[in-house]
Amino acid sequence: MKLVLLGAPGAGKGTQAARIAEKYGITHISTGDIFRKNLKEGTPVGLKAKAYIDKGQLVPDEVTCEIVAERLKEADCRKGFMLDGFPRNVMQAEALDKMSDVDLVLNIAVELDKLMARLTGRRVCAKCGESYHVSTFAGGPCLKCGGEVIQRADDTEETVGKRLRVYTEQTQPLIEYYAAKGKLASVDGMKSIDEVFAEVVRVLDAIA
User: Fold this and answer.
1) Which neighbouring-strand residues pair with 4?
2) CB under 8 Å, gap of 24 or more: what pairs does 59-65 form?
3) Where are the alpha helices (DSSP H) in 54-127?
4) So which residues are the catalytic ones?
5) Cα–Cα–Cα angle for 99, 105, 109, rounded to 5 degrees
6) Over the stretch 99-146, which tens digit does the pLDDT of each residue have?
7) CB-CB contact of 26 with 125 (8 Å)
8) For the whole prediction, is pTM greater than 0.90?
9) Residue 76 to residue 60: CA distance in whole angstroms
10) Following CA atoms 61, 63, 68, 74 in sequence, which dihedral angle do they give, to the nearest 10 degrees?
């Protein structure tokens, strides 16, 4: 099974990806992870990416595609994979078409206005990473370890707004791209984690 996972920041992709990988035994490929691995190991393509990152520039699509293409050649991808964070735009999707034949693109659909409240209300423990939300957490120290509960820098309204705008402009056209190919399936990301996963399983079992 070869999957692409789509969803706005805060849609719960990471949580669902971990569950999908475990249940179906497929390799979860996070572009963030493979970027960090290539940078750490100083691979030729990692050094290409580093040249842009060191200048504070975005890594070009061609370099990102090269990093993903190299990852998909590895042995653990032969039985299937799930891409998370790639493609981010139509140009990358067209490049992926040349690398591999994807079975399904799974979109975790969310209402962006509600997503803003979900993300800006998120709080995490600076010590152990336990996650809370202002709608259910009254404040004070972490209930798990007693550490300080803080708002992450990327969960402020300004930063979240910017991330959602980038998603809408660049990634949302992918939904139309894959729908036109008949490869898109959407699940309701506003439900609980377990309810979303139950929908995901129904979709994936139909193609497995």
Assistant:
1) 83, 105
2) 59/35, 61/89, 61/91, 61/92, 61/95, 64/31, 64/88, 64/92, 65/92, 65/95, 65/96, 65/99
3) 61-72, 90-99, 112-120
4) 13, 88, 122, 152, 163
5) 145
6) 999 999 999 998 888 888 888 999 999 999 898 999 999 899 999 999
7) no
8) no
9) 26
10) 160
